[in-house]
Amino acid sequence: MPLNKIKHIISEIDGIRCSIVETGASKERVAFLKELLLYNKFDVKVAEEKKEGEGETKTYIIGVTDILFNPVFAVYERTLKSTNDYKITPAYWNQQTTVFDPRYWLMRKKIKKNPL
Asked: Where along the chain do its domains lie?
């Protein structure tokens, strides 16, 4: 779920009600978020998204069993930590950088300046 959509979605994954963290995630994204959320002591559930066409790549739904969890609030309130105990920034959550700079507004300026 991108950080610009604040809507809180609750759905069932494997018969357990979960707060949906992200839909349409790739396998690499699932591995990244699962490691991050497990380190922050959340129970993570992953399910394969059902698609109409069979030839498309597989996408996944990631959820946590804490139904009050909202990834937008968690990132901007800086309650999540990385495995080396730095607070998660929006750029790190979106996998745009591996640097933990708390001045997230500077990252936006860099992206606009350099579109590469």
From this structure: 10-113
